[in-house]
C-alpha cells in the first residue's frame, strides 16, 4: 500500500482548487481531484501535502490546517492496480492565485471551483463525496477528521 497526502486548498473566496487528471493509457478516463501525491520515505504527511501542492501547481498554502479526512482506495492506473491511503489537509491562500498545472504527466488542467459549481457539475470528482465534504468544510460542520469508505475508483 502507498501512503500519500492531499490538500483541499481554498482561496479567499472559498473556491477549491481541483486538478483534471487523466490515465495516459486510457485517455477517456478523466476526473477532477485534489492536489497531492505519494509520501517520500519517512516524510511527514503535512510536508508531503505541501511538497505535492508546490510540485503540481507552484502554489504554497499560507496555512495548512487540520486533517479533514483519510481515504483508502484501490484503483487502476496505467494498466496496474494500486492500493493507496491518503490523508487530506485543509489549506488556505490569503490572496487569489492563478490555477495552473506545473507537472504534466497525467494532469491536464487546474481550476478554482465554487461549491455551487461542484454541486451542479456532471464531472467526476475524487473523492466522490467531494460536494458534500466541501459543503461541510465551508459551513463548519466537519470539525473532526472522517474516514471515507474505500473501493475501486476510476483514477
From TrEMBL:
Alphabetic keyword roster: Hydrolase, Magnesium
Cofactor: Mg(2+)
Name of the protein described by the UniProt record: Uncharacterized protein
Origin species: Prauserella muralis
PANTHER family: GDP-MANNOSE MANNOSYL HYDROLASE
Gene Ontology molecular-function annotations: hydrolase activity
A Pfam cross-reference name: NUDIX
InterPro entries: NUDIX_hydrolase-like_dom_sf, NUDIX_hydrolase_CS, NUDIX_hydrolase_dom
Amino acid at each position: 500500500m502507498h501512503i500519500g497526502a492531499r490538500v483541499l486548498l481554498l482561496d479567499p473566496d472559498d473556491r477549491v482548487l481541483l486538478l483534471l487528471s487523466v490515465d495516459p493509457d486510457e485517455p477517456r478516463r478523466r476526473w477532477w481531484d485534489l492536489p497531492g501525491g505519494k509520501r517520500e520515505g519517512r516524510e511527514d504527511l503535512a510536508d508531503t501535502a505541501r511538497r505535492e501542492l508546490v510540485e503540481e501547481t507552484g502554489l504554497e498554502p499560507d496555512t495548512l490546517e487540520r486533517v479533514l479526512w483519510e481515504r483508502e482506495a484501490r484503483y487502476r492506473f496505467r494498466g496496474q492496480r494500486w492500493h493507496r491511503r491518503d490523508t487530506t489537509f485543509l489549506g488556505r491562500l490569503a490572496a487569489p492565485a492563478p490555477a495552473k498545472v506545473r507537472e504534466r504527466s497525467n494532469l491536464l488542467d487546474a481550476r478554482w471551483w465554487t461549491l455551487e459549481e461542484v454541486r451542479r457539475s456532471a464531472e467526476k470528482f475524487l473523492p466522490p463525496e467531494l460536494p458534500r465534504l466541501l459543503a461541510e468544510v465551508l459551513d463548519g460542520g466537519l470539525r473532526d477528521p472522517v474516514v471515507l469508505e474505500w473501493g475501486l475508483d476510476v483514477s
